[in-house]
Amino acid sequence: MITVPIGAWVCASVLDARAGNEEAARRLTGIGLAAAPPTVLLGLADYDRLSRRQQRVGVVHAIANTAALACFTASYAARRQGAHVRGKLLSLLGLTAMGVGGALGGHLAYAQGAGVFRWQRPAEDGTVRPGPSTAVPV
Fold this sequence. Notes:
Layout lengths: L2 H14 L5 H26 L4 H29 L3 H28 L27
Helix pairs in contact: 1-2, 1-4, 2-3, 3-4
């Protein structure tokens, strides 16, 4: 789900590099904004399943992504008013905040294992172990 807003906002910034793409960049910024609420809801739904340590990282991840969302919202508003340079600068700030949030999200998933093995039943001792592979040989 997160790939839609990220992709739209990165593509808008790429279009910002050349003059004449202002309308397309504004539309892509809007598409990213439209795709953000379901992404936020999915993140909030996962929060209560995290360990205390993961929740601390999750809060900072959410703050960084909220800052990014605020920057892209302000960028969209500026672009609609014809203030394209201000819109471009706000998008760059949004990309920076999104990068911080993304790094923290990656840390949650890959270093801290957030969401890993969530669909498997715990063993009798409470630990969760990966089950047998369900992959079909090709």
